[in-house]
Structures are given as structure tokens and as C-alpha cells.
Amino acid sequence: MTLDTSRFSEGPLRVQSDERGVVTLTLDDPGRFNALGHEMLAALQAALKDIAADESVRVVVLAAHGKAFCAGHNLKDMAAHPELPFYQDLFAQCSRMMLAIHKLPVPVIARVQGMATAAGCQLVAQCDLAVASEDASFATSGIQYGLFCSTPSVPLVRNVPAKVAMEMLLTGEFIDARTALEQGLVNRVASPARLDAEVDKLVEAILSKPRVAVAMGKELVYRQREMGIEAAYQLAGQTMAVNMMDADAQEGACAFAQKRKPVWGKA
Questions:
Q1: What is the CATH number assigned to the segment(s) 211-257?
Q2: Which of 105, 128, 174, 185 meets the CB 3.0–4.6 Å disulfide criterion with 180?
């Protein structure tokens, strides 16, 4: 792995990588509940850019240190800058970071150990997969302070049914981890002691699959979701045809025909 993690040794984000190609990004500003201020957003953007350029990366785990996973934007900072350009810049910066997760060619798994509110809930929804501790809770709570969570609504309505999303957005009320699981915001719930093990189950499941197929699949799923059904089928068919030309897909087909386990040729 060529990712340089040392340049993140200072600041609110910790970056770790292992020999499997797993990169862990840890929000490390617990005193401010890992809020998404300019510095945190810039660090996340830089790390995601580096990851996108490193073909040895297979999976990203997005974690957090402290009681909260992420409390969203810091309302104290926002109140201290009552200027439209400041707000426009902040939300544009946040949207760019969320889109970087969306466009990343490898899956991103949110490891949610605590509270995720407003843009923090958005962050969970934007990740491809999410595993939550039983202690975790979720809310789009901006409405409680007169601010409708508009940007968090974008991935939220793409994760949960519209009426569920609207209830969260209009009331700002918290849901617990089990409710988040039932409604589709997270994939799995574990006890705090089992959280890392449950995350690693997903990691290992992804690592056992060819990187090319995973990357093509992630891009396809999100692109076709925004299309009409005919265009979606056309794109999906073309993606499968191109995917089938990959050496690992050829190996998989041969292994199936020969009734043996495939041997992938790519990391």
C-alpha cells in the first residue's frame, strides 16, 4: 500500500492502513463531538483523494473516537459567522466530501459507536454500508434549532422510505440503532464489545471479492438508481458485459464450470 498516513498525524483525523488494503479513517475531535468543521472536512477530503488514487486500497472504514460518532456541523461556529458566503462555502465543502465518498471506487463502511446527528447522520447515510453499536443513535436534529437538514436529506431519502425520512427531518427526534436497522439506515447492529468484529465480517466478505467487480458494481448501483428503468437496464447490461471481460470474471466463470473455487489474480 502506497498511502501516506503520516501526514495525518496532526489534526482532527487519524488515518491507518493495514496489509490487507483496509484504510481506517477515524474522526478524532471528541471534545467537539467530531463536528464537521472546515478542518475536519478538509482532512477527510484529502484522505479520500489519496485513497481514490491508491489501487491497493480495498475497503475504507469510517470510525470515530469518543462518545459521539459525529454531531454534524458546529452550530456555535455557524452562529459566530452570520454571513451567507460562510454558510455557502461550508455546505459546499461538506457536499464535496460526501460526493467523494459516493464516487470512491471502494466500499466505505461506517463504524458507528455513538450519536450521529444532522450532518453526522448524513455521513452514515452516505457510506455504502454501516454497522452500529447498540448504543448508537441517529437524528436529523437541525429542525430543533430552526434549520431544516436539507443536505442530510439527500442520502437519507436514498436509504430509508420517504415517510420515515420526513418524520426524522420534520421532528428532529432520535431513533435508536435497532430502529435504524429496521428502517434501512444501517446494515448491522452489534453490542459495543462486538462492534469491531461485526465490521470485520463485512470487510472480509468484500476482500474475498475481485476489486474490479466491486468498483464497477458500486458505480453502477448509484448511477442506475437515478435513471429511468430502460436507461438503467441499458447501463447495467453494458456494465456486466465489460465486467465479464475482466480476467477475474473469466476465472470465476471457469471455476464455476469446473466446480472449483476461483483464484483471483488481482489484489
A1: 1.10.12.10
A2: 185
Sign of CA dihedral 219, 212, 256, 259: negative
Within the chain, which residue ranges are assigned CATH 1.10.12.10? Answer: 211-257
- Domain 6-207 class, CATH top level: alpha beta
Give the model confidence (pLDDT) of 193-252 as tens digits: 999 999 999 999 999 999 999 999 999 999 999 999 999 899 899 998 899 889 998 998
Confidence of residue 1 (pLDDT cuts 50, 70, 90): low
Q: How far apart are CA 172 and CA 240, in angstroms?
A: 41
pLDDT digits (tens, 9 = 90+) for 30-43: 999 999 999 999 99
**Residue ranges, CATH 3.90.226.10, the chain:** 6-207
pTM of the prediction? 0.93
Place of cell 436507461: 231
Main-chain phi, psi angles of 135, to 5 degrees? -85, -10
Spatial distance between the Cα atoms of 16 and 60, rounded to a whole number of angstroms: 10
pLDDT digits (tens, 9 = 90+) for 89-132: 999 999 999 999 999 999 999 999 999 999 999 999 999 999 99
**Paired residues of 138 in beta bridges:** 116, 175
Phi, psi torsion values for 2, nearest 5 degrees: -100, 0
User: What DSSP character marks residue 159?
Assistant: T
Query: At residue 137, what are phi and psi to the nearest 5 degrees?
Result: -145, 160
